[in-house]
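Example 762.
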Amino acid sequence: MPHESDTSNPSLWIEPRESRIAPVARVSMVAAVDGEYSFAVPDQLAGRVEPGKRVLVPFGKAREPQPAFCIALAEEAWTSTLRPVADVLDDQRLIDDRLLELGRWMSRYYFCPLGRTLAAMVPEPVRSQSGYRTVRTVKLAAVAPDSSSPPPKLSRQRKAVLDLLASHAEGMEIDELSEQSGTSPAVIATMIKAGLLTVETRREAPPAPNFDCPGAEPAFELNAHQRAAIAAIAGAAAEATFKVMLLFGVSGSGKTEVYIHSIRSVLARGRQAILLVPEIALTTQIVNRLASRFEDVAVIHSGLTGVQRSLTYTAIARGEKRVIIGTRSAVFAPCPDLGLIVVDEEQEPSYKNQQSPRFNTRDVAIKRGQLLSIPVVLGSATPSLETWYNCQRLPHFQRIDLPSRIAGLPMPEVRFVDMRLEQKQRKGIHLLSQSMEEGLTRTLEKKQQAVLLLNRRGYSSYLVCSQCRQPIVCPHCRANMVFHQSTGKAACHYCSAKILVPKRCGNPSCTGTLIRFGMGTERVEEELRSKFPQARLARADSDTMTHTRHYEELVRSFAQREVDVLLGTQMIAKGLDFPFVSFVGVVNADTSMSMPDFRSAERTFQMITQVAGRAARAEAGGHVVVQSLAGESAALQFAARHDYVGFAGHELTQRQRAGWPPFSRLARVIISHRSVNQAQVEANRLAERIREYLAHHALTADVLGPQSAPLSRLRNAYRFDFLIRAPHAGRLMEILDALRANKILTPNTRFALVDVDPVALL
Ligand code: ADP
Ligand code: ZN
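Predicted structure in complex with zinc ion:
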């Protein structure tokens, strides 16, 4: 990028002096301004300005100097007129060279200003050193204040202080000194004033929160597949080679045990390891398990207080914590000597950061592994098709299988219920089918536990009269119609009829207004309570689980069997292992119809497999009932047969035909505006300019859209979107670079945001 020097405030210029070589700082603003800017390093700050530290610089029309990250220092001939850096904010570097390099890549790839990217890598509490305490160390003054005059007569107290300090050359904290010498702090203060003692102040971090609770090693021996997997991972770590290893195995096949042993081999070489988990709710379980096997475990997730976060980062940076477990931001843990990164459940959409920089944690982990020449392990029972495909075509991707379940238990039986037929055959609205009710009844009779899962991604709900409670039914086939938020219409999933939603109840004797009877967890809970009044219910969704504490309490009460039926959204589908769960119900598996996304089949498959895994520990053999309004799709059929490999082959063929990832790369551009017209105009204009640019430069890529986004209205703005589709990542990056350099599309383009490798197209 060209040198851009900000010249709006001439009073702050430093006059050029001919033929002088001087240090120049390249900075990137923390505020979301794209680009790099140069500032002179004034003499008084020389040596303190360093890459990876924050500085304050005069910028634009702002009155106060603005924060920025220094990203490079150069000795340059001083030919241009540069404004000086105003101050340095950090004593220590927050970001080392390698993280800086990672940040540069992210800024480019994810189309985000560098300063903003770096700020996201080092969260605010860490930057401000929250939780640090100020330590004041007292030492003997180097020279006696006035050596020409005879030494003053010392009081006994003063003498005690001087004697004590004479034997503590490194200095002592005031409290310590006061206590050990039996002197009041006031006396010490007078001695400081008199110049007998000097004080140094520094900020120091107390120890980070501790998670260790060493327990016994499990008694079992690893099986042959696990040993082979560990040998492969530990081998790559020992050779310090970059490799991505997909650990492919169903839940209960022993993946976590492989992570533990692989991490251990890395620690044995004195290095650190990061284990990433997709959601904060899952950290509890895995932290408990790992904390009993390792010393110095650190945890990073969004539920930490600022102080905890800041102290944890410091401990990691000093190498005091060597096993780092956490969600998205843990991928930036400032490990000085990282040897391994493990990404558990690598396919999870929650790895995608939904704010700028919109990075995918798994892909950042892979990039970090590449920059450091270390292996990256991706674990999954249902790998993303991107990863699966990479294993087939890229030499540095390697697949390692854990083909069997440890206990040799069979996978549970999966039954499918077509809710369209059910609706025709039964009167009224039932969220739970007959098979579901029977399954629950049997489970409760046997005093076992059930999990009911509601797929929140479906935005479907029924329309019911608020007075007579009659649902709106299809004029053709009398099935209940489903309201679609994206179109504002009600659709029949039986015959595909669509109608505009009427204002009032269609019943001639009734004029009640219509309400949406949603598939929300609360509705299902209501129905459960009325049908199973004796069952003890617990509900887990983002409304009830606002804190890890709630989740821990839920896990505890379910584990102790104080709860019979656990009802919740996706968050309960993952990772929870309870031996008495013998029944799992999926209330609505309809991602495919209500989510206009090329990944809907993949998501459906993943979800069914995950929940089936929850019923899989039952000794008596578990049962799964899956309800759907959309018919039995290929994804559901493969899922019922527990056939990931078959599904992946089928789905990759579909994707290749349609040109979707992994056979292409996407950048989604979303235009939002308060005026629907303006949103459309801006979207058309921008899409057209990009099309022209691509055509003019003969770049093989296309622009799909614009169109009204599936979630067309969000936070009072209308949304239109279009996709830039390129054949591979390199080409997409090239295109985005060019659009950015030519200012056709930049991270600062008004009304527009860019999402590279979007995980959802809503
Ligand atoms: P995953 O992560 O694939 O779900 P885990 O590593 O959690 O699998 O293993 C499932 C269960 O089996 C755990 O309770 C674990 O302690 C146990 N386990 C793992 N490996 C073995 C083994 N080789 N022999 C016996 N039990 C094992
Ligand atoms: Zn119909």
